Prior knowledge:
The structure holds 2 protein chains of 2 kinds.
Chain A: H1 2-16, H2 22-27, H3 33-42, H4 49-61, H5 75-110, H6 115-129, H7 132-146, H8 162-168, H9 170-196, H10 199-206, H11 211-248, H12 254-264, H13 267-295, H14 297-300
Helix pairs in contact in A: 1-13, 5-6, 5-9, 6-9, 7-9, 7-11, 9-11, 10-11, 11-12, 11-13, 12-13
Chain B: H1 9-13, H2 19-29, H3 32-54, H4 86-122, H5 124-139, H6 142-153, H7 161-188, H8 191-198, H9 203-240, H10 251-258, H11 267-293
Helix pairs in contact in B: 3-4, 3-11, 4-5, 4-7, 4-9, 4-11, 5-7, 6-7, 7-9, 8-9, 9-10, 9-11, 10-11
Amino acid sequence: MVTLLMVSVVVFAAIEIIPGDAATRYLGRDATPEALEVLRERMHLNDPAHERYIKWISGAVTGDFGTSLTSGRPVTEVLAPKIFNTVILATVAFLVYIPFSVVPAVFAAANRDKLMDHMISSINLLAVSIPPFLLATFLLILFVITFPILPAISAVTDESTVGEFAIAIILPVMTMAIVMAAHTMRMLRDNLIEVFDSDYIRMAELKGMSKHRVLLRHALPNALGPSLHITALNINFLVSGMVVVEKVFAFPGFGRELVDALLVEDQPVVQATVLLASMVYIFANLAADLGSMLLNPRLREQ
Amino acid sequence: MSTEIQINSDQLEDAPISRFEALKRVLRQSPMSFRIGGAIMFVHVFIAITGPFWAPYDQATIFTGPPLMGMSWEHLFGTDMLGRDVFSRVIHGAHLVIILSISGSFLGVALGTALGLLSAYLRGWFDEVVMRLIETLISIPYLVLALLLVTAAGPKYSGEPTLVVLVVAFVFAPRVTRLARAAGLDVVMNDYVTIARLRGESAWSVIWRELLPNASGTLLVEFALRTGYAPVLIGTLGFLGFGVAPPNPEWGLMISEYRDLVLASPVVVLAPALMLASLIIGLNMWTEGLARILGRSVRHEE
């Protein structure tokens, strides 16, 4: 909570030091000084910075982020549909991400140091190294130009049907899922191997438990714990990746709104989006801590 | 991975050998990833250093040939929409990207190290303030923070390579600070630090002579790791239009500039994309190998 408040100060200060004030940007270079003065008065730009900060943050707590400078509508109203789109995209990406990371990790760990493991690890190294915008570009070349089966841009509108929406998000979802899964997979594989070497797994095997049961009942839950933390890091990835992926595929979501607002210096929208993005990240970290406590009884007792 | 080879330090100390011999032995026993990554990096650094001397054309010369011409002997990667030679631009880009990456991450690691070690040594309110600040900056997703910083710098400086270096350093510094502080705290407990302090040495002298040498392994790996992240961040910023300004031949910027041309001439996008991807893969492999040689694990983050 304190961190979030500090973030809001940083964001506010960063916007504050942009040269030129909002009134000038709003009216353009050749606005008359009188008009500028009137607008500044109306936007409370003449108030001292700390007063404006308090005004903004107390509004933000109640969900009122002010008015967008470019569209003139309340920021909340501008952002709500974008956030909705992004949440769907992120949820689908997350659902795809889980099998994308668990399945190859299990296969690699089960066939340790065999051809399968080496192949998966090599592909994984590629996936870890490639930044989202590059992966998106490669996928675009592959599926839009070489095999023209998917749309290049994911410009869904309010009128799009569910089917159109589903097709539109295939490429963004793939990009995000691969980027996120790459790190988790590697970590999960190493954890699994470590767990396979432990005494309780050997014990379970000696008891005559089936291989699948050992894997699902004993190995996986224990290996999953540390991976939860990387999943929290992945939320950071997700937020940063969303910005890129939505921009690449022209998907009308939160991340693209953030970039566009920064480009036109629409400060209320920038403040709101950065604050929300940081909030998501902070809560994701909290959730990961709680999650690993649930999976690890030793931590629960503390 | 099966290529894991433990460097046996006793073995190295067996006979008095020259430094060069020792280096050769380390290289011979080094993990495969270190060697492959090193080879890829060597090629990149070679191109970066010598490229500007043998690139057939200047990076900004227009109409070196007809626009959007495909691959040919005169123009290995064809020409772009302004008839600039893409091969030459990619080569000049190597120079730019590597200089930006190394200076950005070096500055970030230096800054973070100084702050982190100082924080570990002084403790008390200084440590408290630094940690709060670090926590805040880390809570803003790193790409969002970078974009925010570029915007805050204002139009006068945006597009300047120096700004990109500063932004990279600023985004990396808090994360390095946290690491350096943790490494420093381990060392501070040792008696020799107390003795140095009791000798009446100044804080900087203790940090420079006692803390830094003992934390150098961790920090070296961190520097290598950051140098691997830097091209990703720089490329992403360039791709989104927040990095260096055209006509700089930065690869991320080139990919975004040429994205629309991909139907006419795919090579103009593929060339910078593959260069960037291979640089990142090379750096990652090398870093992983380096970490293994130094007996440290690579922490992947963001």
